[in-house]
Amino acid sequence: MQLTKQDIGRLLAKQGILIAFAVFMIGFALANQRFIAVDNIAGVIRSSAILGVMALGVTFVVIGGNLDLSVGSMMSFSTIVVLDLHDKIGPALAIPAMFALTLCLGAFIGFLVGYLKLNSLIVTLGMLSAIHGLTLTWSGGKNMDIADKAGTWFSFFGQDRIMGIPVPILIFALLAALLAMLLSKTPFGRKVYAVGGNGQAATFSGIPRARVVFYTYLISAFCVAVAGLLQASRSLGSQNTVGQGMELEVLAAVILGGASLLGGSGTVFKTVIGVLILGFIQNGLLLVGLDFYVQYIVTWAIIILAVWLDVAAKRGRLWSPIA
After folding, report:
1. Among 101, 173, 229, 297, which one is least packed by beta carbons within 10 Å?
2. Cα–Cα distance measured from residue 61 to residue 195, given in angstroms and rounded to the nearest whole number
């Protein structure tokens, strides 16, 4: 069977990211044998867990036809709050208090985008700055550290292992499994796809569009709170800008996983794959000797490539018919 140019174009549009990833993996493995070592692979997955947890929540937002650019600053807020409250009221109360405050931020964004029908890009871009200011106000512009690092059980979430598996990986896997079932096996998940695919049609079908969008932002905020918990527990201290810039990495991972910026498509499983693709590419760049700041350029290039392939998959060809 002979493949035509159009067939190759469709293949690249649908599977181009995976093909590019395979090329990257082979190249990195040939450049540095340590890349495929078991300890390196485990380290990449563990370091990607925080980003991955955030990406799981943003997947719901993107499938619902919206964006969330506030997750980076919100993660900084969650991390600083739980570290600050740890020494004041103890970890048993600090953790639920942090989750409650983070969910309030997510609810506020969900209200603006869902019920007031404001543009999600504008709202979350504004909240990015607002939450960053809130974080600096809470911390007084200072970084946070736990006073008694040796005597707290709080380190369990970020540093301990269960049956030899790091807890962050287990939390990431468990949360991914639960959210995958929520998205693919429940009426709510079908409503998210319907709202993202055609919001107006979903409304005419009796689906409460505003409520669905509101809940997607609550899910995103919950995942950010989990990520903040993991970050704080891993280091038992943090800068007040720890999440700065992560919103682009999260969005890149979600898009790499096949979620469309136009809404209505994507899965949790593919988002996990997108997170791992991004993690292994960044790790490979470091192992071949490139400086860490090259990652920013590569992340930008990956976002452009993923968006291009997403649009190409919709029209069935890599190039615009006008061109």
Report:
1. 297
2. 11
Selection from 237, 188, 230 nearest residue 209 by Cα: 188
In the chain, how long is the greatest CA-to-CA distance? 70
pLDDT at 318 over 60: no
Indicate whether 101 belongs to any domain. yes
Among candidates 258, 285, 292, 288, which has minimal Cα distance to 274?
Answer: 258
Domain that holds residue 153: 37-244
Exposure string over 38-65, b if 16+ CB within 10 A, otherwise e: eebeeebbbbbbbbbbbbbbbbbbbbbb
Residue 98: closest CA among 88, 110, 109? 88
Contact 211, 114 (CB under 8 A): yes
Q: Within 13 Å and on the Cβ side, how many CA atoms surround 279?
A: 22
DSSP conformation class of 264: S
pLDDT tens sequence across 46-83: 889 999 999 999 999 999 999 999 999 999 999 999 99
The verdict on residue 276 lying in a domain is no
- Decide: 240 and 132 in contact? Cβ < 8 Å: no
Per-position DSSP letters for 21-85, written without gaps between them: HHHHHHHHHHH-GGGG-HHHHHHHHHHHHHHHHHHHHHHHHHHTT-----HHHHHHHHHHHHHHH
CB 109 within 8 A of CB 137: no
The answer to whether position 112 is within a domain reads: yes
Output the pTM of the full model. Answer: 0.88
Quick check: is 85 in a domain? yes
Round to whole Å and give the CA distance between 38 and 124: 39
Structurally, the chain folds into a number of domains equal to 1
